[in-house]
């Protein structure tokens, strides 16, 4: 079972947004410029850099309505992902999914109402 560490929690447009991270299963070798790869991997191994998968979930009334995942994140401080636009892109994708799910459920529920 994966353990996730919460990086941030927001209320946005009537939704609750949770941004968190977990360890990255992918080997970082091969994901960086050849010149930098060994140095980056060494810093990941020694804990200077955080190598993780980012997860964004969007909730409405406690129900998960959308999510987005991004692997291969490498930062000195994982919270920097919140300020460089990366998390915002993921939040936007998860919000779009949540809004589509709201529309889908509304249409299904309308069919049930007599």
Encode the helix/strand succession as letters: EEHEEH
Helix content: 25-40%
Instruction: Outline the low-pLDDT stretches.
Output: none
| Rounded mean pLDDT score | 93
**Number of E strands:** 4
User: What Rg is obtained from the alpha carbons, in whole angstroms?
Assistant: 18 Å
Structural class: alpha+beta
Key features of this structure:
four-stranded antiparallel beta sheet, 2 helices, 36% strand, 114 residues
Walk me through the structure.
This protein is an alpha+beta fold and 114 residues long. The chain has one domain (5-112). The chain is built from two helices and four strands, in the order E-E-H-E-E-H. It has helices spanning 34-46, 86-112, and strands spanning 5-12, 15-23, 50-60, 63-75. A four-stranded antiparallel sheet has the order 1-2-3-4. The model has no long low-confidence stretch (mean pLDDT 93).
Topology summary:
Layout: E1 5-12, E2 15-23, H1 34-46, E3 50-60, E4 63-75, H2 86-112
Describe the structure concisely for a colleague.
It is built from 2 helices and 4 strands. With 114 residues, it is α+β, with helices and mostly antiparallel strands.
């Amino acid at each position: 079972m994966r353990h996730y560490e919460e990086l941030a929690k927001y209320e946005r447009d009537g939704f609750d947004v949770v941004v968190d991270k977990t360890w990255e299963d992918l080997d970082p070798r091969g994901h960086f410029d050849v010149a930098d790869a060994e140095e980056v991997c060494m810093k990941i191994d020694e804990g200077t850099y955080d190598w993780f998968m980012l997860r964004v979930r969007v909730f409405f009334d406690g129900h998960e309505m959308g999510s987005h995942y991004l692997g291969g994140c490498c930062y000195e401080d994982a919270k920097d992902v919140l300020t460089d636009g990366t998390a915002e892109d993921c939040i936007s994708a998860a919000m779009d999914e949540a809004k589509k799910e709201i529309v889908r459920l509304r249409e299904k529920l309308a069919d049930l109402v007599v």
